Amino acid sequence: MLDKETFHPLNYIKKEEYSGSMDGMRYLLKKVRSGDEDVIRVTIWPEPFNLLHTPEHLRESIEVSLTTEGVEQAVDWINERYEAERDKWQESLHKPWV
């Protein structure tokens, strides 16, 4: 699980994409333009492939504000999605991919 107390990539996200994984779930936080403002698009998907090689139907995304509070919302959402489908994420670690 990601810890809001130690997860502080906001300044990094303002310049670059921030990605990671935890127990079969990959995630990406990326600054994007939404209307007249910049936001963080948070995307999750199962292992083993990178985002570009993962089918669209296996990806989930939300957008949050480009603020410290937005990063906290992103962490909450990633953790909630992980907990909601823990078996799916862990199963993806053991799939035989060709």
Keywords:
four-stranded antiparallel sheet; alpha+beta; 98 residues
What is the H/E string?
HEEEEHH
Structural class: alpha+beta
The beta-strand count equals: 4
What general outline do the C-alpha atoms trace?
globular
Alpha-carbon distance between the two ends: 29 Å
3D structure, described in words:
The chain is of the alpha+beta class and 98 residues long. It contains 3 helices and 4 strands; from the N terminus they run αββββαα. The chain has helices at 10-13, 68-84, 86-92; strands at 18-22, 25-34, 37-46, 60-65. The chain has a 4-stranded antiparallel beta sheet. A hairpin with a 2-residue loop joins strand 2 and strand 3. The radius of gyration is 14 Å and the shape is globular.
Short précis:
By secondary structure, the protein is α+β, with helices and mostly antiparallel strands. 29% of the residues lie in helices and 32% in strands. The protein has helices at residues 10-13, 68-84, 86-92, and strands spanning 18-22, 25-34, 37-46, 60-65.
Note the topology.
Elements (H helix, E strand, L loop, with lengths): L9 H4 L4 E5 L2 E10 L2 E10 L13 E6 L2 H17 L1 H7 L6
Antiparallel strand pairs: 1-2, 2-3, 3-4
